[in-house]
Specification:
heterotrimer, A mainly alpha, B mainly alpha, C alpha+beta, A: mainly alpha, 3 helical TM bundles of succinate and fumarate reductases, elongated, C: alpha+beta, Ubiquitin-like (UB roll), Fumarate Reductase Iron-sulfur Protein, Chain B, domain 2, five-stranded mixed beta sheet, two-stranded antiparallel sheet, SQR/QFR_C/D (chain B)
Chain lengths: 124, 115, 238
């Protein structure tokens, strides 16, 4: 038994396996982010100064790459998740590779667009 | 054998994971759009307070929270049950993830009500 | 004549180590022939399983550069590599060199009752069970499994959960559930609907990619999952 390493195999695996590994990885990242995000929402209750200080710390040019990465993680998990649901119902099972490419491409396109928009807003 | 328990949480969890996934596809993309991609001032304190002053929007946010908390903690449950340790302690894993889900929705709900 | 390096992961019961062998290769020579060459000319202690040498017994599955395949059906020059890293199958205990312990694998198969179950067997009056070609087509593909273990080796769920039934077992269960002559569907659904059954599959689908018989175990597991969900939910209302 390989252990948790077996969830993230790279050697000798097909794109299907890599897609699964990324889905699991992005899921774990988003779980951690969710807990952090829900905790941050408490700051709204602590008043305007606390909230504004927090926002100015986390929404600025230096953190833009991290925000962008978060968006990529979200889009990948969402579109790939859609693919997993389709496949688990046997829909388009014979075209699973094409489906993989299309949904991954969609995720990347949405990511590029949203990075561009955020860049414009933050940089002014 | 204790490890081969049959739990009705499994089929319901699977179905609800898919349903919340679909809902989240809409919710999360909408939420990202409103907060980061719609206007320059969307994250200012005034704008946030304005959005949260409407009770319909608060109700929507709570439903969003229930969906995301379910999806996240059910996902965590699946990951933990994928391990031998999780398999041997399946009842504990189920209990803890359900508790985390209830705690998140209760906490978020209280926050929204008191706002 | 070309030479290809076989870098084999050996195990003598105590230590695991890699050992290199230079194997002269001709066009058409299979990996199994390469292993036999090593055993006969270079190191007689090399241990591996093989029998039919024609892809039907399922004995010789090994991992080459990370990917499981049948040694007898793989031509060395088709792999297009100067060095081959050969290891035993994953997720199963290594007994010696390339030989792994299949006991658990077969016990799991037994648990899903991989045989026709009927309530009307009278050996004194045998009856022919009729089946149309259309009914056969429903499950024929899944009958081709040779129990080589390649799918189980690549499954991420099997790497962290030792009691996970595995794609081959669930495919065997589906093969009988989908057989129109069978009446034991509910018993098999009981067997696969535990937390060590269909619920551990998250569609990595690597099993379908590596199956040497192109059976599509991932497809069978999804079908069993749907049936198991329906079965378990209906049980609540009974």
């Amino acid at each position: 038994m390989v252990g948790v390493k077996g969830w993230f195999r790279i050697r000798g695996v097909s794109l299907q396996s890599l897609a699964f590994s990324l889905q699991r990885l992005t899921g774990i990242i988003l779980l951690i982010y969710l807990v952090a995000h829900l905790s941050y929402l408490t700051s709204i209750r602590l008043g305007e100064e606390v909230y504004t200080a927090f926002i100015s710390l986390t929404v600025r040019p230096e953190t833009l790459p991290l925000d962008s990465l978060l968006f990529l993680v979200i889009f990948y998990h969402a579109f790939n998740g859609l693919r997993v649901v389709l496949n688990e119902f046997g829909i388009l099972y014979e075209y699973r590779r094409a489906l993989l490419y299309i949904l991954a491409a969609l995720a990347v396109i949405c990511w590029l667009w949203s990075t561009y928009v955020m860049y414009i807003y933050v940089m002014g | 054998m204790a490890m081969h328990t049959r739990s009705v949480l499994d089929p319901f969890g699977w179905i609800l994971q898919m349903i919340t996934g679909f809902l989240l596809l809409g919710f999360v993309l909408f939420h990202l759009y409103i907060t980061h991609l719609s206007s320059h001032e969307a994250l200012s304190y005034e704008q946030v307070v304005l959005r949260l002053s409407d009770p319909t929007i608060r109700a929507f946010y709570w439903i969003f929270l229930v969906a995301v908390a379910f999806h996240a903690f059910n996902g965590l449950r699946a990951i933990l049950l994928d391990t031998d340790f999780g398999g041997k302690n399946a009842r504990a894993v189920n209990a803890i993830t359900i508790l985390l889900f209830l705690a998140a929705t209760a906490y978020g709900g209280l926050l929204l009500i008191a706002f | 004549m070309e030479e290809v390096i076989f870098n084999i992961r050996r195990f003598n019961g105590i230590n695991s180590y890699w050992q290199r062998f230079k194997v002269p290769v001709k066009r058409g020579m299979t990996l199994l022939e390469g292993l036999y060459y090593i055993k006969e000319n270079l190191d007689g202690s090399l241990a591996f399983r093989a029998s039919c040498r024609m892809g039907i017994c399922g004995s010789c599955a090994v991992r080459v550069n990370g990917k499981p395949m049948l040694a007898c059906e793989t031509q060395i020059l088709n792999l297009k590599a100067k060095k081959l890293d050969i290891e035993p199958l994953d997720n199963m205990r290594v007994l010696k060199d390339l030989i792994v312990d299949f006991d658990d694998f077969f016990k799991k198969h037994e648990a899903v009752k991989p045989y026709l179950i009927r309530d009307d067997v009278f050996y004194s009056k045998p009856v022919e069970l009729l089946q149309t070609p259309k009914e056969l087509k429903e499950y024929y593909n899944f009958t081709l499994c040779i129990k080589c273990g390649s799918c189980y080796s690549m499954c991420p769920a099997a790497s962290t959960r030792g009691d996970y039934l595995g794609p081959a077992t669930i495919t065997a269960a589906y093969r009988f559930c989908a057989d129109s002559r069978d009446k034991g569907k509910n018993e098999r659904l009981e067997a696969v609907s535990g937390t060590n059954g269909v619920w551990r599959c998250h569609f990595a689908a690597e099993c379908s990619e590596v199956c040497p018989k192109k059976i599509e175990p991932a497809k069978a597991v999804q079908k069993m999952r749907k049936s198991a969900a329906g079965y378990m939910i209906k049980k609540i209302f009974r």
